Amino acid sequence: MIKDAYTLSAAEAERAFAAGRLTSVQLVQSCLDRIKETDGTIKAWAFLDPGAALAQAAECDRIRKAGLAVGPLHGIPVGLKDVIDTAKMPTERGTPVFKGRQTDAVARLVEHLREAGAIIMGKTVTTELAFVHANETRNPHNPDYSPGGSSSGSAAAVAACHVPLAIGTQTNGSVIRPASFCGTFGFKPTRGVISRDGVLQTSVSLDQVGCFGRTLADVARLTDVIGGYDQRDPVSFARPRPDMAAGAAAEAPVTPDLVWFDLPFNDRLTDDARDGFDAVLDILGPQVTRMEPADTLSNLVAVQARIHEYEIAQHQAEVFDTHWDQISDTLKPIITRARKISKTEYEDALVVKASAEQFFADFFVEFDAIIAPSASGEAPKFGNGTGDPIFCTLWTLAGLPCISLPLLVGGNGLPIGVQLIGPAEKDDRLLRTARWLQTHIAQAAE
Domain range for residue 217? Predict the structure, then answer.
């Protein structure tokens, strides 16, 4: 057995399986031991069934030993955010309202994972209804700090080496920001790449699924596995998806052209984050065009908030009507405000959202990617919220593919992510650019 197998990336584990140096049971047991050792402090898991995980692993080993076909994630442990329905496991959505909730059906993405041979380890902690009220998860780098939200448990589980891969969701900044705070790769593909069937709906217009991993190749492969058309999801599209793994493995044929937006809210960056980004921009030099966009772009922040708040109040109206006493004091004022948004105001916001999508479709004719912060800086202290999502808002609204790369470190020794945003449905090109940036920054640091 490989010592400390829990530290392996998914790709490394697959190579070890193929070489006969590791079994899935050994990998899962190593991950379970790591969880037992550290999760008392980190609290990344809402549900874990070691016996079921080991049984899945034993079946994967049997299939491999029998010489049967194996999938691209055969024997690899994966964590699921606790908003994703999975039979034989509770899905409690981060709230006492759904304590003990269990369904017979599974989310479409879970079906894809099963088909690929992945081992569903359990459910990772999320914030209340995947929104603003933090739960108990701590940052693996320092438990005095937040891991971000709302995919807090998924990001923390990957960063703590509990699992090589995990799945989260993003309606504003809930994949990219936790990835930044926890120092993992976080990838949210183009809206519609991954089906949301069987995933808690907080905003039919904005909810998107994303992935966490410790390498670029791993998040690309996971996205390839769980992507696909699903007629049950109104934003799923019946067109071929980009080959994420091929994009992450490709060399950029020419040096990419990037753009940095000088947005009014850039003043929310902490000093160490600003210093880090100044250093990155200096390294990139003429490959980055600095641009001061029209005010209408930053005004999209209010548009996203209007859509998000209106839709969660509508989609979860029964929950709020019948369980108001179980809703946190953090969420109550937001829902109260949301119920005052008129249908006309909401529909006007949807029109602006569509215009933003068209703006970016035209914009990327000249640029390969936008470079931006993943978050305002290092993680905030635990108990002071889950961090500011504003550096993700515009791209999430427009449904663009985004990736956070763990390239910077702040004054407290905590990670700070660098975000790249690409054109819709050209996720492979974005991942290729991310590979280039990662290599370029590493070479400059030597």
Answer: 5-249
